[in-house]
Amino acid sequence: LQVIRPSSGPGLCIFGSTMAFALALLAAATYGSPGALAIYLPGLAPNEYEEGAVVELKVNKLSSVKNPVPFGYYTLPHCQPEEGIHVKIENLGEHLSGDLIQNSPYKIRMLEAVECKKLCTQPLTEKLKEKYRQMIEDEYLVNFLVDGLPAATRYKQADADLKYMDGFLLG
């Protein structure tokens, strides 16, 4: 974490999520300078993409509100990357929060429209079918990261505003 002090003038410039905001406030208070101009949190720098550039999609753990036990994405027989599975821990926060970020076989390119394509075919034994069924019943969520941002599901409850939930339901 780096806090950059301006040579003159008050201000605080923050980029990132709510957690980044909280860390920035903590850093400014700890650093003792009401005149901090900006902070830098590794992994939160924006990326710019040219048309056709590869946008990385990573997979994270399968999590559930009903069952506190998370599972790695590849615990179930999902399609795997040709180059093999690699853990992609990029910072201490990911490790401490129990994230299990890994590469994926999905190929995404910026501003490139692609119709649905079959990624692979996986045969399922009765035991694996039962495991899928149980995890669907336990409302496990698949958590993807696209360019470091979590994929989310948008939904609307009766007489309420649109809401967002991290990930999407398995199945």
Helical proportion, percent range: 10-25%
Q: Percent of residues in beta strands?
A: 15-25%
Strand segment count: 10
Coarse shape: globular
Span from first to last CA? 39 Å
Biggest sheet record: 4 strands, antiparallel
Overview of the molecule:
The protein has 171 residues and is α+β, with helices and mostly antiparallel strands. It has three helices and ten strands. The strands form four sheets. Strands 4, 6, 7 and 10 form a four-stranded antiparallel beta sheet that branches. Strand 8 and strand 9 (162-166) form a beta hairpin. The longest helix has 14 residues, at 18-31. The two termini are 39 Å apart. The relative contact order is 0.16. The model is unreliable at 1-23 (pLDDT under 50).
Which tags fit this structure?
171 residues; alpha+beta; four-stranded antiparallel β-sheet; two-stranded antiparallel ribbon; 3 helices; 10 strands; 18% helix; 23% strand; globular
What's the quick description here?
The chain is of the alpha+beta class. The chain has helices spanning 18-31, 92-96, 126-137; strands at 2-4, 38-40, 54-55, 57-64, 108-109, 140-146, 149-150, 152-156, 162-166, 168-169. Strand 8 (152-156) and strand 9 form a beta hairpin.
What is the strand and helix layout of this fold?
Layout: E1 2-4, H1 18-31, E2 38-40, E3 54-55, E4 57-64, H2 92-96, E5 108-109, H3 126-137, E6 140-146, E7 149-150, E8 152-156, E9 162-166, E10 168-169
Antiparallel strand pairs: 1-2, 3-5, 4-6, 6-7, 6-10, 8-9
